[in-house]
Write a structure and sequence with these properties.
Length: 386
Amino acid sequence: MGRHIYVHNPFCARKCPYCGFYSEEGSSRTAEYYRCAEAEARLLAEGDIRDADDGPDTVYFGGGTPSFPDSSLVCGLLKTITESFGIRPGAEITIEINPSSLTKEKAEEYRKAGFNRVSVGVQSLSDDVLRTLGRLHDSQGAIEAIKTLSRAGFTNISADLITGVPGQTMEGVLQDIDRFVTLGVKHVSTYSLTLEEGTAFYARYKDRLEDIVPPEEERAVYHAVRRRLEQNGIIPYEISNSACEGFRSVHNGSYWNGSEYFAIGAGSHGFTNGVRYGHADSIDEYIRVMSGALPGGGLPEGFIYVEEEMTLEDRMAEYPFLRLRTSEGIEADVFEKKFGRDVHEVFGDAIKANVSRGLLEDKDGRIRLTESGLDFADAVIRDFMG
Ligand code: SF4
């Protein structure tokens, strides 16, 4: 089975008012941080049992804003990962890009370094919506970023789109999709705006967002977006993700398959050898701990802050949460192979109840959400979790 590597790049030029991801403003410690991340990559690779043909299938540089720091730091880390782990030829290597920090030179450097997939944080092509979201780029900047990436040789381009933003219209969102298509975008990730506790948006819109954007309106946009994407050959394959044929995200697919993956960097979370682990949400703490890492000296003290051993039972209980998000759903034969149990024997009650409500379909060896089930995914999944 292939493995996967996630790298967290926790630097942003400015914190967006709705963002709940771990990142810090500014770039004062980027050089130290990437040196530490290289040390972590070497340490993880040292402890990894593999042969030369069996390197990871995907590497994903997420954030934060990986395109914000100096590109030589990011590309240097990719080089260290590639050399240490022996990345498979043809592996999917993704970097998240923010239009406000991309330059022609950076795009070319990323391509040369081996990145072959980009995920662009467009969010919207309406200047009003971008202003509401507090983004640093405008619509023209986002369009230019996609063109710059194409000119640099990227053919596998994904764009993020946020819906449910106050002041956004359905017509505007659908126009954004049409524009993505003409720009050659092959993958679209759509997210409904959610209020994360502790963010500026949470304080601003708490108890109010549903009045400004009623849930039924948000759901109507969600389904219209999926239909428009599908009409353009960008086929929904997961609750929030759609892709042209051959352009699904292999990396994200690994999470939904319950595969194991390494995590590098502050605030990152990994899953290897049946253990879930994570690093503290702190650049300073990460640098402090990793500075004590010596080559060949094993993992430094304080390297891991969360550890949860996942038994086969735990993995089986979590599996519907991962698979019901996908268009394939739970495949009965795959489930049996993975866990040695019949999915109907384990989750029979949840399946029966949700099939009778019209929220699930149980057909041809697959259990998956129906079109109306997409609107109640969380409730259906809760039934499976018991
Ligand atoms: S650029 Fe992305 S990661 Fe950074 S604050 Fe904005 S939404 Fe969050």
